[in-house]
Amino acid sequence: MRACSCGNYEMVQYLVEHGANIHHCNDYGYQAIMFACNNNQNTKILEYLIEHGADINCRSKDRMSGLLIACDNEQLEIVKCLIKHGADINCRDIKGKTGLMKSLIKNNFEISKYLIENGANLRNYDIHGKSILDYAFECNNDKIDDYLISHNLIFPNQDNYIIRGLLTVCNNNNFKMTQYLVEHGANINITDCNGRTALMNACKNVNIKIAKLLI
């Protein structure tokens, strides 16, 4: 495990060739392959472990997987390697977060784009009921917004989670996304658990441009 974490390919190879159990877990349920997923420089080690039977979808006690670790650590090449070899793109950790959610939390456009293009489910929710789009809206990232809009991946008049989305983008002063949601049927009068509307958020931020759009 330490050899994998340190990126020592020769040591990994030596240990496997001399009978090391690649399926061995530490006290937290992490296997060697998972330690190899924390750095793009470990791609060669990752490929080697997979070739020798490592479980690409093994899970730790907190339900982490190699893919989730790679997304957490923003390691695009590891993500690509794992997906190429059949990793579960929609696996979730103990809190229900998927790799796509984790890449959005990190505001990582390239990994988010790659996961979406390779079949990540945009309708997943975490254990708190937050959707993929909730995480995307919280990013306030123009590249992510443009990608979602240009690929028609947002459906304001169909999905309940857009309700929170409108409140979020208004609170983030995101005029472009606010305009898109309003023009595609988002309910501008919906309130959050505290009774606040999107217009209230805009006024709180003294954002006249968004306020005019909502009136």
TrEMBL record:
Question: ANK repeats span which residues?
Answer: 1-27, 28-61, 62-94, 95-127
Keywords assigned by UniProt?
A: ANK repeat, Repeat
> Which Pfam family is one of this chain's hits?
Ank_2
Q: Which PROSITE patterns match?
A: ANK_REP_REGION, ANK_REPEAT
The record's listing under PANTHER family reads: ANKYRIN REPEAT CONTAINING (PTHR24173), ANKYRIN REPEAT DOMAIN-CONTAINING PROTEIN 16 (PTHR24173:SF74)
Q: What is this protein called?
A: Ankyrin
